[in-house]
UniProtKB/TrEMBL annotation, chain A:
PANTHER family: ANAEROBIC SULFITE REDUCTASE SUBUNIT A
Keywords: Iron, Iron-sulfur, Metal-binding
InterPro entries: 4Fe4S_Fe-S-bd (IPR017896), 4Fe4S_Fe_S_CS (IPR017900), Helical_ferredxn (IPR009051)
Listed GO MF terms: iron-sulfur cluster binding; metal ion binding
Keyword Iron in annotation: yes
Pfam family, one: Fer4_22
Domain of life (superkingdom): Bacteria
Keyword Chloroplast: no
Domain 4Fe-4S ferredoxin-type: from-to ranges: 226-258, 307-338
Signal peptide (residue range): none
The protein's name in its UniProt record: 4Fe-4S ferredoxin iron-sulfur binding domain-containing protein
UniProtKB/TrEMBL annotation, chain B:
Taxonomic placement: Bacteria, Bacillati, Bacillota, Clostridia, Eubacteriales
PANTHER family listed in its UniProt record: ANAEROBIC SULFITE REDUCTASE SUBUNIT B, DIHYDROOROTATE DEHYDROGENASE B (NAD(+)), ELECTRON TRANSFER SUBUNIT
Residues in FAD-binding FR-type domain copies: 10-110
Protein origin, superkingdom: Bacteria
Cofactor(s) the protein requires to work: [2Fe-2S] cluster
Name this polypeptide is given: Oxidoreductase FAD/NAD(P)-binding domain protein
Organism annotation: Desulfofundulus kuznetsovii (strain DSM 6115 / VKM B-1805 / 17) (Desulfotomaculum kuznetsovii)
Cofactor detail note: Binds 1 [2Fe-2S] cluster per subunit.
Record-linked Pfam families: DHODB_Fe-S_bind (PF10418), FAD_binding_6 (PF00970), NAD_binding_1 (PF00175)
CDD domains from the UniProt entry: sulfite_reductase_like
Amino acid sequence: MEAYTISRDNLRTWLDTLARDYTLIAPVREEETVSLFKPVRGFAEINLGYTNSTVSPKGWLFPQTEEMFFFSTSDGQITLADAQTPGPAVLFGLRPCDIKGILALDPVFNGAYQDCYYQKRRQDTILVGLSCTRVERHCFCTSMGGGPTDGEGADLLLTEMDDGYGIEVLTPRGEELVNRYQQYFDADRENRVIPAREELGKKLARQFTRNVDTTGVKEFLDQHFELPYWGELARRCLGCGICTYICPTCHCFDIFDQSPDGESGVRSRCWDSCMFSHFTRMAGGHNPRPTQKERVRNRFLHKLKYHRDRYNLDGCVGCGRCVTRCPVNIDIRQIIADLQEVARHD
Amino acid sequence: MTKCHCRNPLKPYPATIVKIIDETPDVKTFQMVFDDPEVMENFRQKPGQVAQLSVFGVGEATISITSSPTRKGILEFSVKKVGMLTSALHRLEPGNKVGIRGPYGNHFPYEVMKGKDLLFIGGGIGLAPLRALIDFVLAEENRRDYGKVDIIYGARSMDDLCFKYDILDRWPQMPGTTVYTTIDRTEPGWEGHVGFVPAYLEEINPSPENKYAITCGPPIMIKFVLQALEKMGFSDDQVITTLELKMKCGIGKCGRCNIGSKYVCLDGPVFYLSQLKQLPPEF
Ligand SMILES: Cc1cc2nc3c(=O)[nH]c(=O)nc-3n(C[C@H](O)[C@H](O)[C@H](O)COP(=O)(O)OP(=O)(O)OC[C@H]3O[C@@H](n4cnc5c(N)ncnc54)[C@H](O)[C@@H]3O)c2cc1C
Ligand code: SF4
Ligand code: SF4
Ligand code: FES
């Protein structure tokens, strides 16, 4: 498809304009160490130099807490009213691993029962990717079939160049967006954009500090559910759930009602975590995953096996967030390597 | 991106409780009707499926639809009071409003069961999902499709027997149907069998020939019933049970009810014993 270039000045104006015409969601530097995606009013608030946001941008499509509908009971009748949806949005500056994370969520919220909340936001949101410029210590996207300059899943992909940014149009929706703001873009007449991105990709590929080989891990897990290894890991795990909250592919949620007056209120959903003990506890107290061992095993099997079984996609995109944030250094890359090792001795 | 044309599956339909039957000290059966007659008409559950029941302001719980689809115009749910939502339901009265969404999950393989004898083994509130299939099979329009129907049912005490009107009065009257009822310990006024369900099952010692066994009850009962059936020569493909796992969304999104790669809300709650043996033991 088409490619364009945009100067730094024009990028600034374009983003200011986008923020007026759409809800613009972009990476923002909040505090020293926490960066996240949120609605911005213009270029000035955006941090394009971030490597990986602390919290993944999935929260725009699947909010941490989301109102589903309002109910009211009066005169013995029940009325249900849909919560407002945000309308047309641009999710700007997505790193390739996070776009892949969205691709991993898509089939969950699609299927025989469509999740209207996710689907509506997904349809209304244009995804603009941004090639990485650095590789962090914990990144391992290339081990999970991705790459720091992969645009797969994005409508547009931006790549930083010496004199501005290259823009590749990847979908008709991306094309519409570019056409709408044509005045800011120059056609890529010398065909510089794709070679520049490929060059960057090669350069970054050499910067990964740790690559893991996932070959055979899924097949090994297909055959082995019980492994003493899970018990060893679980002894360290605090069950804090951080790993699941920041993961771009985790999608578990709880549903709850709030009704201050007992007559009207709202039903919402919010992120939940399989690392918590109450997650599977049933009325009467029976818990099919009674200890952290079963819960840790469930999380990693979900990432490395279950998601593949159901959707033919890995449940991990190699963003490295859970590696960075786990307070006790539980490292999915190490787990993959350890499982390889266990498999070899099997 | 596929467009979403469906009606929002997470939004319940308003319904009204029309009648409440006290089954036991902590179980009530609720008869419910959707407020919108069109919804009532289009709600086509199959025996074994569940629904999410809402008490607005409190939340939702997964409850088996205990009435047979052959009974049109009404849905029945039998609910044991164990927590927030179930207690809130128990406080409601006829005329009160609730929400229902569903039907969810797979169903008993009633097509495959055609031409076979059926052996039902239930314990306590576990009879609720079985009842949908029993009444489906015993319905006039389906009865000749199935062979003999045996029902073994037990509860802790006389008071704890659910659906007394069915097990003591209605079902024993039906052609080709035998009902065996038992309670754990003897009581004044009880003339029937005394003892646990699995032991009673072994006493009755039904032949596995041309038969399906369908069981549901507390986990401990199911465990021993499965062992007993195996001893009697039932193959893993002749034994069917339902699994209970914590559920929230009912539609494969919330990630709560997985056993390995399966979701109980989509791939269950009904499983053949042969399927159960393929699953990791997390239930
Ligand atoms: C497929 C399927 C079919 C089902 N069919 C039926 C059915 O036909 N009939 C039926 O009655 N049930 C049925 N259930 C079970 C039913 O879904 C649960 O009992 C119900 O969801 C409990 O909801 P609740 O809000 O009342 O309980 P909650 O308030 O959610 O209570 C459950 C949780 O809170 C804890 N808890 C609550 N109260 C206490 C307490 N006092 N002390 C200690 N811990 C407590 C429990 O340990 C448990 O973790 C079915 C479940 C499934 C999955
Ligand atoms: S499991 Fe960890 S590394 Fe993989 S996608 Fe989730 S947060 Fe990133
Ligand atoms: S972040 Fe680490 S300690 Fe916390 S639940 Fe996840 S694996 Fe366990
Ligand atoms: S109940 Fe949500 S996934 Fe099964």
